[in-house]
Structures are given as C-alpha cells and as structure tokens.
# Entry
Amino acid sequence: MSNEKRIIIFGAGFYGKKALEQYGRDIVDYFIDNDADKIGSQYEGKEIVSAKRAAEIVVSREYHVVIASLYAESMAAQLEELGIKEYSFFINPVHGMYETDELVLNPYQQNAEAITEQEWSDSKKMEFARSEVFKAVERLHDSESLFNHVEVETINRCNGICSFCPVNRNSDPREKAIMSEDLFKRIVGQLEDLQYSGRFTTFSNNEPLLDDRIVEFNRYAREHLPKARIHMYTNGTLFNLELFKELVDVLDELIIDNYNQELELIKPVREIKEYCETHSELELNKKVTIVLRKPQEILTSRGGNAPNRKEIREYPDDRCLLPYRQMIVRSTGEVSLCCNDALGEWTLGDLRTESITDVWYGTKFKKVREALYKGRQYCGKCKYCDTFSMG
# Structure
C-alpha cells in the first residue's frame, strides 16, 4: 500500500477502531459501514459513509480501503461490485479469536446481553450476520478450498454447567470417549503433509484441561504444524500457574472463559491475571485473553439443542458457511457437521479409517454444502440453527 494514499476503513466497530489506532488518525478520513443507522454519524471522530458513497469518494481522490471486520470476504465482494479494487485486509482470514491486547475483556460492554430469546433473534447483529453469511457462501461455493479451522476434541467431557450448552456436565448424553495418542498424531501428521496454515485447536465441545495430555499434545502440534495458528478455549477452573505457563508457552492464543454470573474472576483465573500483570515483560496480554462470561445466558440455539432455548425459530432459506471452513473431529475420530453439532448427530467421516482430504472432499461433505447452498431447510435440523458465523 502506498504511503501517499489516504485510507478509508470499512467497518465502524471493534476491528475498525483497532485499524484506526494502527494506521493513525491523520491518514484515515472516513469509515464505511453497512448499518443504515450509522450512515452520516461519527465514529472515533470520523464520518461514516455508505459503501456506495465511498466508491464516489475513491473516484474523486486516490484512496486505499482497509477492510476491518470478520465479514471481510463479503465486504471485499461488495467493494469489487462497486468498482473499488484498491483494498486490503486489516486482519488475516485466519485471525485471532480475540484481536486485542486487553488482558481482561468484558464482551457485554461491546454488545449488550440479550434479556429475552426474542431480543436475541431480532437483534441488528443477527440480521447483518445472516446477510453476510449468505453472500460469503456464494463467494466460496465453487472454490473447493480447504478448511482453515480444525478442532480436535481429545476428550468429550466438560466440567461446566452453562445453561446454554447441550453437553454441560449435568445433561451430557454422550458416551465418554478419549482420543488415542496414535490417532491424534496421525491427524496432525496429515495436516503436516498438507502444510496446513489455518487455525488448530485441541478443543471443541469440551473442557480440554480434563485431558492430562493436553500440554504434550499441543507441543506436538506446535512442532509439526509450524505454520498453523494454535489456540485454545478453556473455562480455567483446572488451571494452576505451572500448567498455565507450560501451556501458554506453546500456544499462539489462549482464551479463558471466566464463567461467573456476577462477572467476578474465579480463583485460578485471578492468579493467572496477577501473574501476567506482574510479569509484564513477557507481554502475555498479547496471547492471553480472559473473557468475562455468564453461565446463565441466552445464546445461539445450536440447531435447537441449546437447553435454555424454548422459542426456536426456523431459518429455511438461510445458508451456512461452517461446512466450507471447519473440520470438527470428535474424540472417537468421527467428523461432525460443524462446531454446533455438540451431540455428534451428524457424522461426515471417520479419521480412524479415512484420510482428512477424503472426508473433506467426500460425498457427505459435498451433499451438505449443496444442501446448505440452497438453504438450511434442506439440511435437517440446520433450519432451527441461528448461528451465523464466518467460521
């Protein structure tokens, strides 16, 4: 990008603000946003314009557009349709789960908690995400690209009691399964042969620290997948400082979901926070994010399986991007439909007997993608799912 060109940031939100901080206020003139309610207002002291208006501005003067959003692919397509070719991405498609240097993050300060199911379903965020996912699927459908997100669940148990989770410890119907070391290494070996450079995690619908091999497994993955971004989610309840230090040393990103209804830090997480703050020279805030979470909360319906969701809506004509992006491996080696298939109701392959690429490009995944391209009504319980994620 030429240093002489001024910048317009596409995305007047969290990542847009980060981009503004990185490039500097003096070189940024406008923000673009697709939310009609924001057009004409100010964000961080800069005017917010529509994408159409931005195209007119770009013609009048040489600008470079920086896309700063998780919905980057569909936004890029939108710019191209308007004739804007000079753009770049602020965050890589394989971005961090939390692009922030804040050690403790309160997500409810950015997006207010939904008090009712109707409020969740009717949110502007949901409406926007549905539209963006639809467009992103159109862009990816014929590409036959490889997944960029792999979850390998090494033990299918959780010690949490979150009301929104269908596999919390009080209601988990799954038969206990622990992945063999041999299977784990074979999966990593196949990814190594592919020179895999996307996200990789030893977590899915479980608490990974219940597996006492978790450090060893992540160290092995780090050694054999040098190009991958290795991250992990945990509720932090089983941490001690020694385990934390061992694990964070081999990860690119560690997200600790601190579950407490009053948003207070639990004891192990409080100790980790103090350690990070007293060892600022290690800059652990660049790879550790403590997220304040409520165990009693209204979130996605998980295909109708979320225990605390009763008013289940249907989304028959919506698409889903996850089977174009995710490879979700259960502890048995079986491959699930997506990360929301917590109960393992769909099995699209079995890595005990099939290769990763044979599963990914196989008949079952192809049928799922074709069905979801037409609409969620053509893919079983997917029509009840209100997860609209960019993967």
Q: What stands out?
A: The first helix runs from residue 14 to 23. The chain has a mean pLDDT of 94. Residues 209 and 331 are 14 Å apart (CA to CA). The first strand starts at residue 6 and ends at 10.
